[in-house]
Design goal:
The protein has 374 residues and is α+β, with helices and mostly antiparallel strands. It has 3 domains: 45 residues; 169 residues, no CATH class; 151 residues, no CATH class. The protein has 9 helices and 14 strands. The strands form 4 sheets. Strands 1-2-3-6-7 form a 5-stranded antiparallel sheet, with no helix packed on it. The protein has a 5-stranded antiparallel sheet with strand order 8-9-10-13-14, with no helix packed on it. The N and C termini lie far apart (73 Å).
Length: 374
């Protein structure tokens, strides 16, 4: 009996040992496989000549649409008598965006970086828009107010307000206020000013894939007073690095506003029509608004002679001045989301922003860094 009990014990011990060994082998195999899989995947994600990634990067097949909502001033007479401005939203005016990259030159046979030029072209999509781009005229005080505040010498063409079509407001070099200034809100973006980039391929370090080395031959800007504000960080927005997770941060350099912006991975979601694919939600709003670093990220873009814009606004004037366009403009999230509440209070009956609708976000596949929705 004792011999039988001892044999059973020995059998159980051997079985347990075999189980532990098999479990360890399985665990090691899984870890090795995961590392091997990620290593192979990351090599495929480098932007190299002839690769699938290069083809999709240089000529994206997925259509990108650009929607514009404009605000029409509806109480010109009352405003001249001291009333608060009343605005009416008009839109969307939808454009298909074609991102063209050309003059692509790789540095070596096995390149670590390469240069190219990029231009964006926009084509109006009437079937997705509220009306024709030459539809009802818009009344705007946008440029006249800015010039009045700057006390620039000028004379009005048609009184203190301008009347123009959505097309003229967005794209046309239309004489808005004075005969010496011709400007459209997005005129410089519609293929008229190619930007020259030099970026990393990601061959040696996949975390740097697509990150910018130079813009128009410069490794940093000379627009702002602070060195950190003049740094060129991140990609041009065509891609993000792989291996992302909740808490990750990524940066994009936006040439039209002369600055790099930070985006934060704050949540997870499922891909549209593919609930089996999990995506990360990146937001331009910091997860902790009380973080003192957020205040510095805004203050470092204050520039002597221009001051600091109100909270939630980005001053575009220093960037425009660097290209010879002296127009006072500011950028904000839709409906001034996250901005100083006094801005909204300065308007008559201006609707409150809705974070779910008006926040800026990007959906990214975390393992590959592919941007799927924005």
């Amino acid at each position: 009996m004792a011999m039988r009990s001892k044999a059973i014990r020995l059998s159980l011990i051997c079985s347990a040992a075999v189980f532990v060994i098999v479990a360890l082998i399985t665990l090691v195999a899984v870890l090795v496989f995961d590392r091997l899989f990620l290593s192979i995947l990351y090599k495929q994600l480098a932007i190299l000549p002839g690769s699938t990634v290069f083809e999709s990067w240089s000529a994206p097949s997925v259509p990108v649409y650009f929607s514009v909502y404009l605000f029409n001033l509806t109480n010109e007479a009352e405003l001249l008598k001291g009333a608060a401005p009343r605005l009416q939203e008009v839109g969307p005016f939808v454009y298909r965006e074609n991102r063209e990259k050309f003059d692509i030159v790789f540095s070596d046979e096995i390149p670590e970086d390469f240069g190219f030029q990029a231009s964006n072209f926009y084509h109006f999509v009437p079937e997705m828009s509220v009306a024709s781009r030459n539809w009802a005229k818009l009344h705007s005080k946008l440029f006249t107010a800015g010039l009045l505040e700057k006390r620039s010498p000028f004379f009005f063409l048609n009184g203190p307000f301008v009347t123009l079509s959505p097309y003229d407001a967005m794209w046309n070099h239309h004489p808005l206020v004075i005969q010496t200034i011709n400007v459209g809100l997005f005129a410089s973006q519609n293929g008229t000013k190619p930007v020259q980039y030099k970026i990393h391929t990601g061959l040696d370090d996949i975390s740097k894939v697509g990150s910018i080395i130079e813009v128009n031959g410069q490794k940093k800007l000379s627009v702002w007073d602070h060195e950190e504000a003049n740094m060129i960080n991140g990609s041009d927005g065509s891609n993000a690095p792989p291996g992302l997770e909740i808490g990750s941060t990524i940066q994009f350099y936006v040439n039209d506003i002369c600055r790099s912006v930070v985006s934060y991975a704050v949540a997870k979601t499922q891909a549209i029509n593919r609930p089996d694919i999990e995506l990360l939600v990146f937001s331009g709003t910091p997860p902790d608004p009380r973080d003192p670093a957020n205040d510095w990220r805004e203050r470092m873009f204050c520039k002597s002679g221009y001051g600091c814009p109100p909270k939630g606004l980005l001053a575009l004037s220093p960037c425009l001045a660097a290209t010879g366009e002296n127009v006072p403009l500011y950028l904000s999230q839709p409906y001034f989301l996250g901005a100083d509440p006094r801005i909204v209070q300065a308007f008559d009956q201006f609707p409150d922003p809705i974070p779910e609708r008006h926040s800026t976000w990007i959906h990214i596949e975390p393992e590959t860094g592919d941007m799927l929705y924005a």
